[in-house]
Amino acid sequence: MSTPAETSLLALLRHVAGLSAIAGYVEAIGFSDFSGIYPGIMTGNTVQFGLTFAKAQWALFGTIGLTVGLFFIGGILASLVRWHLRRPPLELLLMAALLIVAGFVRLLHPAQPMLELPLLVFSMAMQGETISRFGGVSLQTIVVTSNLLKFSDALVGRYLIPSARHAPRTGQSQSATQRPELKEVLMPGFAWLSYGIGAAAGAVLIHRFWFPLAVPAVLLALMVCDLMATRPHTADAFR
């Protein structure tokens, strides 16, 4: 039988993996539909923004700039919604609704991806703003660069640094010398791996399923039920 601590860790890993896989899936579909523009990875889009400016590719430059601007606006709107919800996970249901609408737009207007673009961008911004803490650990599920750094740092701190590190040196805070918890190692690693798996699934299903955006929408609904059942009933637990 699992202990409460083990159950808690499993729940955290389930939440991180589920949301990361959803993000990777949506990013893969967006990348394919928008010819190399990401709906939620603004690092990649910003690099392309600079490149297209330097190459005077003004049409693509404008589209990428619009994407970045929409993401920023989506983040503002998502933050406003989150602060007015007592249970922030409910905002993920709004994200699921956006994905369903985007799926219908994609189905009815396949030659006009710009109608789909704002919906996917807003949905990714909404996910990023809704939940960014898991078990007290700050973690994003719509990007993985920072998660890889957190994974490597926690791995070193937990397994590769001698035990002498845990005795604080002069002028060093106690928190700086604490051995990372197991969840601090596993969650960033799971986030990265699940993101890649989700992207692979999106790349496959986009060609084999007539309504691929229904998959993350359904998963989000299930994730909301799981989050509501296993996480504290306070908004601060998600920020």
Automatic annotation (TrEMBL):
<dbReference type="Pfam" id="PF06912">
    <property type="entry name" value="DUF1275"/>
</dbReference>
<feature type="transmembrane region" description="Helical">
    <location>
        <begin position="58"/>
        <end position="80"/>
    </location>
</feature>
<keyword id="KW-1133">Transmembrane helix</keyword>
<feature type="transmembrane region" description="Helical">
    <location>
        <begin position="209"/>
        <end position="229"/>
    </location>
</feature>
<feature type="transmembrane region" description="Helical">
    <location>
        <begin position="185"/>
        <end position="203"/>
    </location>
</feature>
<keyword id="KW-0472">Membrane</keyword>
<feature type="transmembrane region" description="Helical">
    <location>
        <begin position="92"/>
        <end position="111"/>
    </location>
</feature>
<protein>
    <recommendedName>
        <fullName>DUF1275 domain-containing protein</fullName>
    </recommendedName>
</protein>
<dbReference type="InterPro" id="IPR010699">
    <property type="entry name" value="DUF1275"/>
</dbReference>
<keyword id="KW-0812">Transmembrane</keyword>
